[in-house]
Every structure is written in structure tokens, then in C-alpha cells.
Design brief:
Elements lengths: L1 E5 L4 H12 L3 E6 L2 H10 L6 E5 L5 H11 L6 E4 L14 H29 L2 E6 L12 H23 L4 E6 L8 H5 L10 H12 L5 E2 L3 H10 L4 H13 L4
Parallel strand pairs: 1-2, 1-4, 2-3, 4-5, 5-6, 6-7
Helix pairs in contact: 1-7, 3-4, 4-5
Length: about 250
């Protein structure tokens, strides 16, 4: 068993790596920060092989190169975890930084999902876990680009899931949609969460366990599950207003 994890240098990616390693998976760990990857590799002591690849997935060509470099590794579990958010009014956010977000959160996920999915379909086995967010079900004023990127990941994953289901494929795709998790995300985005985040180790384990059970949408907390249920009964305009007020609290 072998897994490739993007965004593996910290947060949930790091915890997912630790958990899969404990389950006997060989690992290919991908991130921008080589120092953190080396540190993580040294901490994973045991039999499964651990390989690290340093690359910046905000450059679309790097996602293609990553696939080409690992296509012959017989990977059977792809985890698209790399991603980040930016806080602020849409008109004021730096455009280049925003394009980096779109390339990391959307383009890289799309490229890697498509290319590895084709291989998985050929051998009729494999799992893909795309890390999205509860933000993937909403519009997100003050984090508009981030919310839109996670909407893309959710809907893309759902569409692929149905295509695979109708073919009775042994390839499975899941989408992890947590609320706030205690990671470096808020530091990068420049926010403080309005809702208390869940433990990243718990979140990582929950995501992987449910992906291996072939669950499509994975939500690790009762709060987010309840919120997602009740959102269905509110008009989008009202939801967007509520979301704006929640986002404003991140300034504090």
C-alpha cells in the first residue's frame, strides 16, 4: 500500500502521514517546505518506505511534473491536501496571491485527481481523498476566493463519485469537509477562527478512516453536520449574510 499526500509538511497533511504510516502505508510526502518534510520523514521510524518531494503546487506545471515523477510508484491512495486561504474584501486582495490560491486549491487538485484517477481506473482500484472544507457549501464574503475554490473541490468530487458509482468501479473518491481545524491555516490566511477548531490528529484519522470506508462527503464534527443540514432550509442570500457576520468575527 502506498499513499501520496500533498501539503504534508504541517497540519492535517502531517497527521495523515503519521496515521497512514502507522497503518503500514509507504508514503510519498509532497510540500513546499523541504525542512519540514525532512523532519517528518526522520520522525517516521519503521519499515514502510517514506519519500519526500519538494515542489510548489501554485505552479500548475509542477502538478503535472509531480504526476510524471510518481506515475510508476504504484500509488493506490492519493490525498489532495495542499491548500490555503486569504482573508479580506475581494477588491482589495492581491491578485497574484489570489491566483496562487486558485492554482493550489483548484488547478493542482484537478490535475492530480484526473491523472491518478485514469491510472486507478485502469487497474480498477484506488482511493482519492480531496480535502475541501465546510466552506465548500457556501459563498464566503471576506474569503470569497477560498470558499469558491472549496465549492469547486466538493462539486468536482461529487461528480466523479457518481460517474464511478454508475460503473460499479472499485475506485473510490471522497471529499473531506471539516469546519475549523487547529492547524496553521488561520496564520496563513490572517484570521482567527470564530468557531473553536477541532484537533488535527482526530480530523486526519477521521478523514482517512471514512475515505477507506468509501464515504463520499466526510464531516468530522456534529456541529458542522448539523449546520450543513439546517443550511438546506435557508435561502442562499440569507446564508451569505450570516456567513459575512461570521467572517467579520475573524478580525478579532
Amino acid at each position: 500500500m502506498k499513499a501520496l499526500i500533498t501539503g504534508a509538511s504541517s497540519g492535517m497533511g502531517r497527521e495523515m502521514a503519521k496515521y497512514l504510516f502507522s497503518k503500514g502505508y509507504s508514503l510519498i510526502l509532497v510540500a513546499r517546505r523541504e525542512e519540514n518534510l525532512v523532519k517528518l520523514k526522520k520522525s517516521l521510524i519503521g519499515k514502510p518506505e517514506v519519500k519526500i518531494i519538494t515542489t510548489d503546487l501554485s505552479v500548475p506545471e509542477n502538478a503535472k511534473k509531480l504526476y510524471e515523477e510518481t506515475a510508476n510508484e504504484n500509488i493506490d491512495f492519493l490525498i489532495n491536501n495542499a491548500g490555503f486561504g486569504i482573508y479580506g474584501e475581494f477588491a482589495n486582495i492581491d491578485l497574484d496571491r489570489e491566483i496562487d490560491l486558485i492554482n493550489t486549491n483548484i488547478t493542482a487538485v484537478h490535475i492530480l485527481t484526473k491523472l491518478f484517477l485514469r491510472d486507478f481506473i485502469k487497474k480498477d482500484k484506488g482511493h482519492i481523498l480531496n480535502v475541501a472544507s465546510s466552506a465548500g457549501f457556501l459563498a464566503g464574503p471576506l474569503m470569497s476566493s477560498y470558499y469558491a475554490s472549496k465549492n469547486y473541490v466538493v462539486r468536482l468530487s461529487e461528480g466523479i463519485y457518481e460517474e464511478l458509482r454508475r460503473k460499479k468501479s472499485n475506485v473510490h473518491i471522497s471529499c473531506f469537509c471539516p469546519g475549523p481545524v487547529k492547524t496553521e491555516f488561520n496564520k496563513v490566511a490572517g484570521v482567527n477562527f470564530a468557531i473553536k477548531g477541532i484537533d488535527q490528529t482526530y480530523a486526519a484519522k477521521y478523514a482517512i478512516d471514512n475515505a477507506l470506508k468509501n464515504k463520499m462527503i466526510i464531516m468530522p464534527s456534529f456541529t458542522m453536520k448539523s449546520a450543513n443540514f439546517f443550511m438546506r432550509f435557508l435561502p442562499n442570500k440569507q446564508l451569505t449574510k450570516i456567513c459575512y457576520h461570521i467572517q467579520r468575527k475573524k478580525d478579532n
